[in-house]
Amino acid sequence: MKPIKIRPMTGMLRRAFPIAAPLLLTVLSAHVQAQTVTNTPAAAAQPIQRVEITGSNIRRSQAETASPVQTVNRADIEKSGKTTVAELLQTLAVDNQGSVPTTFGNGFAAGASGISLRGLGSASTLVLLNGRRIAPYGLADDGQKVFADLNIIPAEAVERVEILKDGASAIYGSDAIAGVVNVILRKDYVGTTVRLSQGLSNESDGGDTRLAVTHGVGDLETDKYNFLFSAEYGKKREVWNRDRADRGAVGRADLRDFGFSAQEALGGTGAIVANNSAGSSVVGNVRNPLNNNYYSRGSTAAGNGFTRTFPGAACSNFTNHPQGDPGGGCLTDATQQYNQIQPRQETLNLFGRATFQLNNDWQAYVELNGYHSDSDSSSTPSGISGSVGYPGGPVNNANVSLGATHPDNPYFGSAARLRYIAWDVGPRTSAIETNFTRAVAGIRGTAGGWDIDSALLYSQSKTNRQQSGYLQRDVAFALLNPNDAANVASARATSAAYAGLPAGSFWRIGENSGLNSQALYDALSPTLSNDATTSIAVADVKASREFGQLPGGAMGIAMGAEFRHDETELNPTSGTDRGNIIGLGYSAYEGQRNSAALYAEFLAPVHSTLELSAALRYDHFNDVGNSYTPKAGFKWTPVNSFALRGTFARGFRAPSAAENGRGGLAAFSTSDDPVRCALGVTSACASSSVAVITSPNPDLSPEKSKSFSLGAVWDPLPRTSISLDAWQIERKNEINQETTSAAIAAGNVVRDAGSSQFAGDPGAIVAVLTNYINSNSTKVNGIDLDARTSYTMGDAGTLTANVTWTHMLKFERTDLEGNTVDYAGTHGNCDATNCMGTPDNRVNLGLGWERGPLRINGVVNYRGKFDNTLFKDDPDGCAFHFANGDDSPNGCKIGSFTTLDLTAKYRFTSKAELFATIQNVFDKEPPLDPLTYGAAGYNPLDYSGALGRYFQVGMRYTF
Q1: What element of type H or E holds 947?
Q2: Residue 750 phi, psi (nearest 5)
Q3: DSSP H helical segments within 402-554, as ranges?
Q4: Closest CA to 571 of 534, 535, 530
Q5: Cα separation of 144 and 588, whole Å?
Q6: 3-state secondary structure of 412
Q7: What percentage of the chain's residues is helix, strand, coil (to nearest 5)?
Q8: What is the distance in angstroms between the CA of the first residue and the CA of the last residue of the chain?
Q9: Kind and range of the H or E element at 716?
């Protein structure tokens, strides 16, 4: 087969892009040069080569289709200064609420990275590798959303990434409601390239080491074969919150100097909040059995009712953290001390491809992918009172107490509730090992005028997670109160390590923790583990050809069939299946599915200026039935410098095994308590952590969608182009957990009556009971603008400039009762990943200069400000407040965030080049965000501001 070439639209100079590619007219490769096609006999005699574009199975002469496709290539990754494809894709304006950053080391899907096109969630964004599926990551985001891990992509092997930004279910099937990310790897490289880089932050931490080797031999034209192999090693070191103590609110849970207090859960760890309410303290806060007031064990105040005093428990013996809690608690900032801005991760990416030219018409190919990842994350030591849930119901740990004879009990002789952070056990850690494999064997060629491609695919992802620092409930309760026979019996029955301890053993706390044996800690906090495996097996065939003739040219048709088998299994973390791990939720699911699909696509150039397209797909699932999804589009080019195009599509997403399989989810969310708040319990008016128990639903129906896009592109000058695209996606029958606020309003909660502060106070919420349901509908729409130009300055070189802007007009969600809220430009939806909000403006601005061997590029990334409300016009007002009651922060606004990244590349010879990057050149700090739970004090979208100025230098050599 001859090398594929492209005939671009006359006068349309398509451009490789450093930040975001054009929306309506897209290049297929950074190496494609614009050509002028004439009507001379010589031009007419040349054969027209055909190319395949993401979003269509019909090969065509032009790279532009009716759908907006955005292209990113290897050079664009380098210009951005990002070391991985995942990092770059998550800076794009098209990515929004629901994306999964690798830096979220404490999330359900720790160790992975996912993209969320249009903010509709990673589960509605389909990720392909060379046009075919990959096995999803074993750990579902939020315990529900199954997605593909972007970290498996070997950056040095990438030819380009094509992002289809409208619905594509008619072509690719389920999961493509929000669009498609198609990663296209090299296919026939010849030569050897070595790339080495090292990154380091301005604080001399967070080192990022990358080594990649790519080798290819064999020319398809002359040797009839090509073997390509790529290996890429990466090691990213951790960055601790405590090492950014001088960066405003970054990494802090104690924000009293910003105007907060313990009433907003931002006054430090261990505060005594109010009557009968206290946080977990390093010395221990203990409740007086007579009046229900909490006191620090180190207290010497009169009237605390102590029967024993503990001078060694004085707060000053444990910390030099600033004190001042009005309730007398010993304050620390455990989040700053133990949590991380980014976890440690070590990865190895392998990719191999063998292509054989069987004859002039047929090729056989084999692809092999391998990925290995080890990541470690750390978080605060466990409290002892965190309530949890499991499929059997909630487990209330709020009544954990020091026994009447516990030697560290200041109310010796009476059992007393305890609030203690287990610093002596150590931080809670998570070590995740992931192994991903993918194998494809296929054949492609031409027969009877048809272009045919058929392959078998198998892909698997296996994840093992080891966790330490978590407390076994029954053992902890027994060691703190061995006088309780039920506690002791439960611990002996379930823990051999506890049964081996001397009878009546105590867990000594605070200043006396040095008296504990290692055997006691082994029983109290054993290493926990769980495994997850996902796999897919696919057989497919597709064929396309031209036929007939219309005024605009030959018609095109494509047909295909696919059979797929999916399997998913996530085993619960040991102990969570009975609610026995304090502060750790339950997540487990199992399911398998067979599906088959038939699809067809038609292209009709009805006029030299007008092209119409249509597609229809039929899918059958053995568990949720059938689905028909159509798509239609047009492209009108009245003159060479101007084009209009648009699409309409329907889509669907079948429920995942986490949603309709066997298993369940018990997780944590944040919510206020309107019942107690209305009764005057001030602490209940602020959001705090609650357990949420959710069960799968085998009766779920698929989500359905319809999408529209309409855009124009104008090239007013030979080197200038402007594109504007309007888009809308409506998704109905959405699969969601019932919202915590709705469940609380309906009274589906479990409360701790023992935390009641006065008569009529029902006590704090410890668990919320929800289900997966087909509930809401969502309408999201907006506008994308892309403008770029280049200017040649003679001997002074060439300047390039570009700007991409995505403005979200609406993100409306309507519940079953017909109530509609709009999240665009607000901090909602906080039931989604990280509670990172839905900014309605994201802008990428690039400026580059190239002269001879030197190239310099600057990239400005802008995230617009948004309201700190849960949705627009929320009648409850601001979602967070300062201690004095004022809206927080900045009058209820999360400030905008802008960074500048600079990259430079110098080519010494045709084989050797040096490159360097400075990210966040001006060392901008991120604005305060007290509501998100994906990071401490700042929004996860502003990670580069938390990290600070970052440097990278590297070398590439080609043999």
Answers
A1: helix 943-947
A2: -120, 130
A3: 473-480, 485-494, 496-499, 518-524
A4: 530
A5: 10
A6: coil
A7: 15, 45, 40
A8: 27
A9: strand 703-717
The rounded distance, in Å, linking the Cα atoms of 367 and 353 is: 4
Sole residue written with tokens 């690039």: 846
Does the CA dihedral 42-45-49-50 come out positive or negative? positive
pTM, whole model, 2 decimals?
Answer: 0.87
Alpha carbons 828 and 821: distance in angstroms, whole number: 10
Residues β-bridged to residue 125: 179
> Do the beta carbons of residue 61 and residue 53 sit within 8 Å?
no
Buried/exposed 470-504: b ≥16 CB within 10 Å, e otherwise: bbbbbbbbbbbbbebeebbebbbebbebbeebeee
List the structure tokens of 716.
């007013």
Q: What is the 3-state secondary structure (H, E, C) of 828-882?
A: CCCCCHHHCCECCEEEEEEEEEEECCEEEEEEEEEECCEECCCCCCCCCCCCCEC
**Helix (H) / strand (E) containing 239:** strand 239-240
Rounding to the nearest 10 degrees, give the CA dihedral for residues 731, 733, 734, 737: 160
In whole angstroms, how far apart are CA 810 and each of 569, 814, 824, 861, 876? 37, 12, 5, 22, 20
The rounded Cα 140 to chain-centroid distance in angstroms is 10
Q: What does DSSP assign to residue 887?
A: B
Q: Kind of pairing, strands 428-447 and 416-419?
A: unpaired
Assigned token pair, 160? 């380009």
| Three-state SS at 600 | strand
Query: How do residues 120-132 score in pLDDT, each as one tens digit?
Result: 888 888 999 999 9
Assign 3-class secondary structure to 247-295: CCCCCCCECHHHCCCHHHCCECECCEEECCEECCECCCEEECCCCCCEE
- Is the bond into 702 cis (omega within 30 degrees of 0)? no
Q: How many CA atoms within 13 Å lie on the side-chain side of 588?
A: 19
CA dihedral (763, 767, 769, 771) positive or negative:
positive
Strand, coil or helix: 223? coil
Q: Which residues pair with 881 in a beta bridge?
A: 887
Q: What is the pLDDT of residues 656-715, one digit of tens each?
A: 888 888 888 877 677 788 888 989 888 788 777 677 778 788 888 889 999 999 999 888
CB 591 within 8 A of CB 661: yes
Name the nearest CA neighbour of 354 among 175, 107, 187: 187
CA distances from 885 to 264, 305, 670, 686, 898 (A): 10, 33, 19, 11, 29
CA distance 211 to 154: 11
**Which of these, 799, 789, 624, lies nearest to 703 by C-alpha position?**
624
Report the alpha-carbon distance of residue 261 to residue 461 in Å, rounded: 44
Strands (E), 608-640: 610-621, 625-639
* Residue type for position 660: N
- Token duo for residue 648: 């309409």
Tell me: the pLDDT tens digits for 452-510? 999 999 999 999 999 999 999 999 999 999 988 988 999 999 999 999 999 999 999 99
